[in-house]
Amino acid sequence: MRSDIEIAQSAQPLPIEDVAAKLGLSGEDISHYGKYKAKVDYRLLQRLADRPDAKLVLVTAINPTPAGEGKTTTTVGLGDAFARLGKKSIITLREPSLGPVFGVKGGAAGGGYAQVIPMEEINLHFTGDFHAVGAANNLLAAMLDNHIYQGNALNIDPRRIIWRRAMDMNDRQLRNLVDGLGGKANGFPREDGFDITVASEVMAVFCLSKDLMDLRDRLSKIIVAYTYTGEPVTAGQLQAHGAMTALLKDAFNPNLVQTLEGTPAFIHGGPFANIAHGCNSLMATQLALKLGDIVVTEAGFGADLGAEKFFDIKCRAGDLKPNAVVLVASVRAIKHHGGCPKDSLSKENPEALEHGLQNLIKHIENIKTVYQQPVVVAINRFPSDTEQELAIIAAACRKLQVDVSVSEVFSKGGEGALELAKMVMSVMRPEGQNHPIYSSELPLREKIRTIAMKIYGAKDVVFEKNLEKQLEDFAALGYGNLPVCMAKTQYSLSDDPTLLGRPKDFSVKVRQVRLCAGAGFVVALTGEIMTMPGLPKVPAAEKIDVDAQGRISGLF
């Protein structure tokens, strides 16, 4: 079978103005970025404010495994299936980060015959949004250090600088470093470091802002350091927020592309779901809701991360009300959760499948019972799946009174998700609802405990020394009502990536908390999660190349 990039390169895409026309947009509403990409003016949202919202469908998944689940592929194929059924369907996705593209995970444009295109451009520089986010982040860092160098009028304590620089690449060498060396003219020496751009608070602000002025206001609230007396210092106090907004102004307009079948897709923003909130921009989602009949969006990694943050952070910030949820799993991934070795996943193994089903069941319970959302399970079919294995999964779902559909979008595109689309429409609520797991008034400590115990199934939460006092300090500063963004391994319901399936009797260990006042949440870092990943032993970058005609190979 042809590779993903070969399938994408053989497609005949529509001119982007034709894709825009499907949404009722004219040439004045878009700015071209070549033949097949465009920016859509975010101010359209104001003009369309009186339109009723489309139906909103969230696609999430079980905890990811090396066996693959196919969440993005299912999202794309489901959007194409709705279009085949005569609906004005729009897909909203995150932009891929260069870190995973060149690392181990690969791109994020779907796969097989359920992809968004132009695949190579989406996975590489796209429209430059991530560069703009990184530049805004690093401008703030430069202005902070310059303020101290120029006399430190704000009385900033150099030992309590919390703002780090960012770049969109996996580079472990930059996690922790000392800068400002070389004498007084080069600044003051201090410990510093880099985060990957998608973990930057600027990316989170970018993705949660309702309009350009909300973006500017949120940027001004970013806390970068503390004074000698313990008072927070913000980007607004440094007068950095205006210039940061100027850098992000064009990037803030959502990116319009298409699927292989010509279905419109907004791809905008890209926060990681194991570090940040893991959802595409609120602006793109809100705009799509005014332009289509059904919007299919995706939340990163498993439902314990992306979906939890979608409901508790993004929906809360944008007053979004989902109508249905699709939970993606694969036979291979479930068997992996049941202890089946990676090299044996293609062999029938009912025992491992039965054991691994507990991971799927926990996610179903969370979505259906905790968040009170109608859910359909999509089994992303692989050639090695047997009828017996598919029947075992279907029986487990039906026992929980949940519909299940075998999805074949990888090999058939939208045609392979027609049954799934019909099931989703049959369970879809006429009026969307959102039921966050905790109230804003709950103390930050208890919000963390609620997520860990109700969503992950933990028996307890253990906080490192002084963290509970730090959370109390955040509340004293006026941030106690913020939601919590958990930073946790994606591979397990616990904070230990080796605990697969549905672990029990575990405690979640919180080792650090960060106040992201601009983004509007408090981050709780657990386990060994890092905000600057590293490359694997054999990076995907080693297989990527380009020929004399400029044709790229090796992307996946």
Describe the structure.
The mean pLDDT is 95. Strand 22 (507-516) and strand 23 form a beta hairpin. The chain contains 19 helices and 25 strands. By secondary structure, the chain is of the alpha/beta class. The longest helix has 21 residues, at 129-149. The chain is globular and about 70 Å long. Helix 7 crosses helix 8 (201-208), helix 13 crosses helix 14 (350-370) and helix 14 runs parallel beside helix 15. The two termini are 14 Å apart. Strands 1, 2, 3, 4, 5, 6, 14, 15, 16, 17, 18 and 19 form a twelve-stranded mixed β-sheet that branches. A four-stranded mixed β-sheet has the order 20-22-23-21. Strands 7-12-13 form a three-stranded antiparallel β-sheet, covered by helices on one side.
Task: Give the overall form.
Answer: globular
Helix-and-strand structural type? alpha/beta
Q: How is the main sheet built? A: 12 strands, mixed
Percent of residues in helices: 25-40%
**Overall mean confidence score, pLDDT:** 95
Helix count equals 19
Distance between the termini: 14 Å
* Cα-atom radius of gyration: 23 Å
Poorly predicted runs: none
Q: Can you count the beta strands?
A: 25
Please indicate the percent range of residues in DSSP E strands (runs of 2 or more): 15-25%
What distinguishing features does this structure have?
556 residues, alpha/beta, twelve-stranded mixed beta sheet, 19 helices, 25 strands, 35% helix
